[in-house]
Amino acid sequence: MTRDVAVVIGVGGMGLAIARRIGGGRRLVLADFNEATLAAVAGQLEGEGHDVTALPVDVSDRTSVASLADAAAALGPITQVAHTAGLSPVQAPAAAILAVDLVGVAFVLDEFERVIAPGGAGVVIASMAGHMGSFPPEMEAALAATPAADLLSLPFLSPDALDPGAAYGIAKRGNSLRVQAAAVAWGRRGARVNVISPGIISTPMGQQELDGPHGAQMRGMIAMSGTGRVGTPDDIADAAAFLLGATASFITGADLLVDGGVIAAIRQMRPPA
């Protein structure tokens, strides 16, 4: 019997939680750049009874992403895709963040559009950082519509002119804009695609950020938020399961903030224009 295929790209804290949530009864394809981490997570989920295929991928390389999409499609109809792979400002310089967080998402949207099954759905994990800045309309138009292979040629994306934090914010805003644009093309295949913008989540990456130079500022944002707590990987998995499932069949091209109310609090503090 052919079973539906769910693909999770990036098997860190959020990816693992999403894989657990959506993998039951499906063939579960896990992909990550770090092959040791990938093997460990695949073994863990296999031990829990999941049907797992583990495939290495470099999301900054279109050929690698295309090979992943083709290999997953060969296993059965791809009905769910969750893209969680990314680098944070404490982990990498601006050039790497742009290559992975911005161009990598664009490649995944393009290549999985080719193979997503009718009725299928995708979700991209971005960040509340994409909601923190103000971007000129011409910049947003370029982030949304420039071919993926040409994104790094945009003048405002020169890594020499950006620190890692700025590159991260631009990349995450670009994720939202590209998903909104991709929703039309995915819709032609009878599929949907959406964005989740997490806040501060208790993952290894999140803990690195909390321990980094902006940790005090991040703790202040948590304290002023409506929930007053750090998020968990399961909070993101809940949102992903909803957006990937049948009850979200009329939602596509949307960006769901799952940030505990941080952005709402920040906007309340801004003086009127």
Structural account:
The chain has 273 residues and is an alpha/beta fold. The chain has one domain (5-257): Rossmann fold (3-Layer(aba) Sandwich), CATH 3.40.50. The chain has ten helices and seven strands. The protein has helices at residues 13-22, 35-47, 62-75, 94-115, 137-145, 164-188, 204-210, 215-224, 233-244, 262-269; strands at 5-9, 27-32, 51-56, 78-83, 116-125, 192-198, 255-258. Strands 3-2-1-4-5-6-7 form a seven-stranded parallel β-sheet, sandwiched between helices. The mean pLDDT is 93.
Spatial shape: globular
Spell the H/E element sequence. Answer: EHEHEHEHEHHEHHHEH
Strand percentage, roughly?
A: 15-25%
Mean pLDDT: 93
Q: Which ranges are low-confidence, i.e. pLDDT below 50, for 5 or more consecutive residues?
A: none
User: What is the straight-line distance between the termini?
Assistant: 60 Å
Instruction: Examine the coordinates and then state which fold CATH places here, giving the name of the CATH topology.
Output: Rossmann fold
Largest sheet: 7 strands, parallel
Helix content: 40-55%
Tell me the CATH architecture.
3-Layer(aba) Sandwich
Number of helices: 10
CATH domain class name = Alpha Beta
What is Rg? Answer: 18 Å
In CATH, the homologous superfamily goes by the name NAD(P)-binding Rossmann-like Domain
Count up the domains. 1
What structural class results from the helix and strand content?
Answer: alpha/beta
Total strand segments: 7
How would you write the strand order of the largest sheet? 3-2-1-4-5-6-7
